[in-house]
Amino acid sequence: MAKFNAKNLAIIIVFGIFLLGTVVIVNAQQLLPEGGDSFGAAVKLEPGSYEGGAMEKDQVEYFYINLKPGQELQIKGTLKALPDSWGEGEVALYNEERQKLVGVSKTFDKGEKAEFSFSWLSNSDKDLYKYYIKRECTWHKLAPFPLDISLIDHYDIGSQTDAGDSFEKAINITLGEHNGYLSGASGADTKDFYKLAAKKGKTLTIRTTPEGEARMKVAVYNNDRQIIKEEYAPNPGAIVTNSVSITKSEDVFIAIVCDEYCNEDITAYTLNIATEKTSDEEVGLPQGESMYPQGTEEAAKAISKGIAWIIISWIVGPIVFLIIIGMIIYFLWKKKK
Questions:
Q1: Which of 109, 124, 277, 296 to pair with 193, CA 20 to 30 A apart?
Q2: Which of 172, 137, 139 is nearest to 158 (CA)?
Q3: What region, left, alpha or beta, does residue 111 occupy, with left being phi > 0 and alpha being psi -120 to 50 degrees?
Q4: What is the pLDDT of residue 290?
Q5: Do domains 29-153 and 156-276 have the same CATH topology?
């Protein structure tokens, strides 16, 4: 019969823990698959943390990833040179037309490394996007380096999508506080259009508060898509308020803009929309009733009529008097004849 050996058991337990830890690490940071050698042969990636292999000069790999409207693609990593070799490498993002959008390129001395990070926020032009990621060694060699790929939802006003960047694609909005996102220079989502049902006689106020140092624009258009009023931030990070008087009941469009001149980074903003009541109907009085105390309105009308008759008497009285005097003189003169 085999004897119980506590030392052997301890070794087995330690070895098991080591194996389990190794499996967890591999799952947390998986090996980057070998990419295609062209855009057409690009290999699909899912969000995750990858460890890419070493690269030789002129070696290039292509990958692609899909995005929904209103999603941010964030790519992070660390380019590295081998301890005994110089190196130069690039990681870049391309659109479906294979145009370069953003990226990083670094040249290294032996053993040097550099962290990088860049993002891209998609707009509502398409229902689904395909973006290409290129990984390349342009000189000497590159050491294996990590690549982290994340998709972050930046949906506007809780809509599960991106607000359109045109009148046709405007999404409905209500009074109250809402949150939205624009890309600035880090994407294609530079405008958010909203549609609001507005009532005649009210003052509509839109207050936009950006996160960070963005210089935003807020514009209001009528139902005929004609500009009513637009306001610009006077300085980076300024709150922008736009107030307009609504002259007829109709849908109006609200445009929030943050392009490459507004901010370098993706910008979150808070949108407050409110109206002010300015007439009897808007304060909810029953039809036919007045805001004035009972009896005062009739008294005011009577006073107005009295004043009007006094003014008429002052003007007409002397004229009538002169006519009467003239007629008396005429009849006396005629009688004397």
A1: 277
A2: 172
A3: left
A4: 46
A5: yes
Percent of the chain whose pLDDT exceeds 90 = 71
Distances (CA, A) of 242 to 201, 209, 253, 316: 17, 12, 13, 53
Instruction: Give, in words, the CATH class of 156-276.
Output: mainly beta
Listed by start position, the domains of the chain span 29-153, 156-276
The CA distance from 266 to 122, in Å, is 11
pTM of the model: 0.73
Beta carbons of 212 and 237 less than 8 angstroms apart: yes
Residue 280 per-residue DSSP state? T
Distance CA 172, CA 158 (A): 11
Percentages (nearest 5) of helix, strand, coil residues in the chain: 20, 40, 40
Beta bridge partners of 153: 71
Pick among 2.60.120.380, 3.60.10.10, 2.30.110.10, 3.30.70.640: CATH of 29-153? 2.60.120.380
Question: Cα torsion for 90, 95, 99, 101, to the nearest 10°?
Answer: -60
User: What value does the CA radius of gyration of the chain take, rounded to a whole number of Å?
Assistant: 38
Q: What is the pLDDT of residue 288?
A: 45
- How long a stretch of residues is the chain? 337
